[in-house]
Amino acid sequence: MFYLIYNILWLVLFVPVLLFNLYRSIKLGWPLALAERFGRIPRPDLAKLGKRPVIWLHAVSVGEAIAARPLLRALRSRYPDHAFVVSSTTETGKTMAAGFSEPDLCIYFPFDFLPAVRRVLADVRPRLIIIMETEIWPNFTREAARRSIPLLLANGRISDRSFKRYLRFRWFFSHALQLFSTLCMQSETVRGRIIAIGAHPERVVVAGNLKYDIPFHRISEAEKAALRRRFNIPDELIVITAGSTHPGEEELILYAYRDLLVQYDHLLLILAPRHPQRKPEITALLERTGMRFRCRTELETPGAGPFRSGEVLLLDTVGELMTQYALADLALVGGSLMPIGGHNLLEPASVGVPSIFGPHMSNFREIAALVLTYDAGLQFATTQHLAGTLQSLIDDPDQRRRLGQNGLRMMRENGGATERHLEFIARYL
After folding, report:
1. DSSP 8-class letter at 300
2. Element at 239 (helix H, strand E)
3. One fold for both 2-208 and 221-413?
4. What are the residue boundaries of the structural domains of the chain, listed by start?
5. What would the pLDDT profile of 364-414 be if each residue is shown by its tens digit?
6. Which H or E run includes 332?
7. pTM assigned to the model
C-alpha cells in the first residue's frame, strides 16, 4: 500500500517536479539533463562499461564525492575487472566526480520515478550499489532489492537536526531502510539513530568515517611556494582561506578581515563559497564593502600582477578548495558561523593547515570534538570573537605550525574506515 500511494503521489507531482528542476537549471546555470534524470543514459556512455560487472556508487554532491574518493580508489585497486559508475544529484557533485580517475562513467542520479528507476537499473545492471551517507529513495531501493542487487550504505551519518526530521517521517523512511543489505555507520551514536528510524539492527554496523582516510601529508615550503606562484600570491602574504562559506557568512568574514587590515599590511583573504554559482551575489557584496578582489577564473588574464595585501581572491571554480587550503597559512571553515551545521575540518587538517571554526558544528560534532582534543584547530564561541581568533594565529607562527602538525597526527591515528568498509563490501562481490 505504501508504494502504491507513493507512486500515485509521484504522478501528481510529475509536472511540479519538472518545473522546479527547470527553474533550478535556469537559476543556477546547470544543465537540465532530463534524459539522464529520467534514467536514459546514452548508449555510447553505457558502452564504456563493456560486459564487466558494475559497482555503482552514489554521492549526492561535492562533500560526499570527496569522502567517497578513498573508497573508490581502494575498490578500483581491489576489483580491477569491475566497471565503476558514480552518480550525483548536483552539477557540482558530478563535476567533482568527473575529475576523478576511478569512475568509468559519471551520471546524474535518476528521479525516484518508477519508470526512470527501472530503465537505469536495467541499463547499468549493477552487481552492487553503494549509497554514500544518507540518501534514501523508496522506488530505487525497492527496485534494486527486487532485482537482488545488494544495497550498501557507506559512511552513514544522521545529524542532530536531521534525526528529528527522520523520526517524524519514520513511516516513510523505514520501508526503504529495511531493504538495505548492510548499513555502515560512522559511530555508535548514528547506528542507534538509523535503527530508531527503522533499519534492521542486525544489518547495521559501525565502520568509521571515510573522511579520515582522505590522503594527507605536510605541505613543504617549496610546495606551498609553487602553489602560490600559480595564483600570483607573494610568499610574504599571510593567506586566510575561508572555505565552504554560506549566505550571511561572507559579510561577517569581510568585516573581520577589514578590521584586521587596520593592524596588518600582509594579509590576503581567499573566499571559497560552498556554491560557486553564488558568484554574482558575492561579487556584489565585495563591491558594496569596497574590497579589491579578483575571481579565480580571471587570474589567467594577461598582465594580471601579483596580489597585494588587503585584496580578496574569490574562488568561482569547482574542485580547487583543497589547493586553496594547501597554500594557506590558516583556514576558516564555513557553515559554522551561521546555524548551518559546519563543514569538514579534516580537509585543512589533511594538508597540515590549522583551522578555526564557529559554534555551529552540529553536522560534524564528532570531528569538531576530535580536532579540539588533538589541539588541531580553534573554535570561537560567537562571531564577535572571529577577528580576535584570527589575530591570535596571525601573530603566532609557532602556534600555527603546532596546530598543523597536530592535525596531521590526528589524520594518521584515526584512519582505517576504508578497510572496514571493504570487509563488508567483499561479502557481496
Report:
1. T
2. strand 238-245
3. yes
4. 2-208, 221-413
5. 988 999 999 999 999 999 999 999 999 999 999 999 999 999 999 999 999
6. strand 330-333
7. 0.80
Q: Which fold has domain 2-208?
A: Rossmann fold (3.40.50)
Q: What is the DSSP letter of 1?
A: -
Name the DSSP letter for residue 279.
H
Q: Which fold has domain 221-413?
A: Rossmann fold (3.40.50)
| C-alpha cell, 156 | 552513514
DSSP 159-227: -HHHHHHHHHTHHHHHHHHTT-SEEEESSHHHHHHHHHHT--GGGEEE---GGGGS---PPPHHHHHHH
Other C-beta atoms lying within 10 Å of the C-beta of residue 299: 14
Alpha-carbon gap, residue 84 to 300, rounded angstroms: 35
Four-residue CA torsion sign, 337, 341, 344, 346:
positive
Give catalytic residue positions. Answer: 64
Give, as one character, the DSSP assignment of residue 278.
G
Question: Which three-class secondary structure string do you get for 338-407?
Answer: CCCCCCCCHHHHCCCCCEEECCCCHHHHHHHHHHHHCCCEEECCCHHHHHHHHHHHHCCHHHHHHHHHHH
- Written as one string, the DSSP assignment of 48-67 is GGTTS-EEEEE--SHHHHHH
